[in-house]
Amino acid sequence: MPRSRRPRHHHYVYVVELDDRVWNVARFRRANPDYRLGMPFVYVGMTGLDPDLRFDKHKAGIQANSFVRDHGLRLLPALYSMYNPMPYESAREMEVELGIALRAAGYGVWQA
Asked: How far apart (Å, rounded) are the C-alpha atoms in residues 61 and 70?
């Protein structure tokens, strides 16, 4: 039996909802001068792993972004699942574009 191959497109963008307390961190506030009161706080990332597994690694402190490790609540697939999976370069570009779009919509956004 042939060995299974990894799908050709296996990179993902993902969005994690962050706890409101992230707004107490000065560098997060400085990165979001146009934040609109009442909008969610999110982390936007890209990965070669399944987004659920990547979120679990953040929460476990493995190659973790401190905002996700300390304030991450849940994935928000409604904001990213329609784009996945994709080639590496597309995921890199989409991570930036998605962050820009969410900021423009008033979200508080962090990207590594």
From this structure: 9
